[in-house]
Design brief:
22 strands; globular; alpha+beta; OB fold (Dihydrolipoamide Acetyltransferase, E2P)
Length: about 400
């Protein structure tokens, strides 16, 4: 989801003068000499919906529990709004956590569940009632105030748990796999609702999830974790389009990766010899690479065009979707002079082995001449039976020079 921000407005994390709201400095956590979190540094800014994403066991939930005060770090410190809370007990921290199981009291009504924390603070009854109904209105659950958890659906329980997390007006709300118990359709709907609620209240959210789509949809920024460390931090678009390592590239979405060697390095492009892809790859928008360096080239399935036309028939291509120019075409001649990119450099030949029909799009599994299998995605503008490309067809894969990503790590 695109968060609503003004055009040409500098985001807080882009402003060198902005002060982080949440700071984790050199945080480590060990269990029986096994490092769950390793010397981790993280800055989150006020009002962000920040996601921690990673495989099971990467340390993301441990990090959340350290923030909540349920675990003490082995080393390092935690600051919220400039205050060091590293040694504060959980009940004193301006932090609330929404658990994956929701952890609602079964014997209490919705109202009582949400009011529980305020009663523990001995707040006046009139203020408790006002606060509780404010958050119930926010999550559209005011009419369910007298119901008990066993009378609610999964989505309704999730809203009650969120309301309980917000009612004490914390500085930070932690959400541990908040959508895990919901079915796909409800999960997609709730993602947008959660973002809208977070923007209305302005509270900083840190979300732990293993669901890539969920993180991409909701986050202002996200961090990819592996083995207790952060591999990359960025806005969803940058993480997806410009991964900084092979691990991140393969973890986020689907990625085709070819190993190769740099054989040419020019100011505006590199050429990589990649036998797995069947030849040379011409890549623009990349950092300088030393000749002979062993690298990987990553290409997203949706960036690949599938065609039955070979590069020998059409030696030049505009790299526009489904548009191939004849060599006699004046535009093609100009393109050759301008780009000097032979089509053969970004082309791979293979056989269609599988087609996965997903409704709005189809995924083609293609076995290249090298034996490597790759995926290409095509939007279903036509019915599958009307397509030119079918099972066991010989096809050619083409992609634009800027769509390859060179990875060195």
């Amino acid at each position: 989801m695109q968060h609503r921000t003004g055009q040409n407005v500098l985001e807080l994390w882009q402003d060198p003068t902005a002060k982080p709201y949440i700071q984790l400095e050199n945080i480590s956590k060990s269990f029986d000499n096994i490092h769950a979190v390793k010397n981790l540094n993280l800055s989150v800014y006020k009002g962000e919906l920040f996601s921690l994403l990673g495989a099971s066991g990467c340390g993301k939930t441990t990090l959340l529990r350290i923030l909540a005060g349920f675990e003490n770090p082995t080393s390092g410190r935690i600051l919220i709004d400039g205050i060091d809370i590293t040694n504060w007990p959980a009940y004193k921290r301006p932090v609330n956590m929404m658990f994956q199981s929701y952890a609602l009291f079964p014997h209490m009504t919705v109202f009582q569940n949400i009011a529980f924390g305020l009663k523990q603070e001995r707040m006046e009854k009139s203020e408790i009632k006002q606060r509780v109904f404010q958050v119930l209105e926010l999550v559209q659950m005011a009419s369910f105030a007298d119901r008990k958890p066993n009378q609610l659906s999964g989505g309704q329980k999730q809203r009650v748990a969120l309301a309980r997390s917000l009612v004490k007006q914390p500085k930070l709300v932690l959400l541990d796999e908040p959508m895990a118990a919901l079915d796909k359709k409800l999960r997609e709907q709730t993602q947008f609702e959660l973002v809208n609620i977070q923007e209305k209240v302005g509270v900083t959210f840190i979300v732990v999830t293993h669901d890539q789509e969920e993180a991409m949809t909701m986050s202002t920024r996200m961090a990819i974790m592996e083995e207790g460390r952060i591999r990359q931090i960025g806005v969803p678009h940058d993480i997806y389009e410009f991964p900084n390592s092979r691990y991140v590239a393969e973890f986020i979405g689907t990625m085709n990766v070819f190993n190769g060697v740099v054989i040419a390095d020019e100011p505006d492009h590199v050429v990589i010899d990649a036998p797995e892809a069947g030849g040379q790859l011409y890549i623009t928008h990349t950092a300088a690479m030393p000749l002979g360096a062993h690298v990987s080239v990553a290409i997203r399935p949706e960036k690949i065009t599938i065609s039955t036309i070979s590069p020998d028939e059409y030696p030049l291509q505009t790299f526009q979707e489904e548009e191939i120019l004849d060599e006699s075409n004046e535009e093609a001649t100009q393109l050759e002079q301008q780009m000097e990119v032979p089509l053969k450099r970004n082309c791979a030949k293979g056989i269609v082995r599988e087609i996965g029909y997903l409704g709005d799009m189809s995924i083609y599994h293609i076995e290249l001449e090298s034996g490597k299998r790759v995926q290409a995605a095509m939007t279903n503008l036509l019915r599958l039976t009307d397509r030119d490309v079918k099972w066991d067809d010989e096809v050619y894969l083409y992609w634009r020079p800027e769509n390859g990503i060179v990875l060195t790590g």
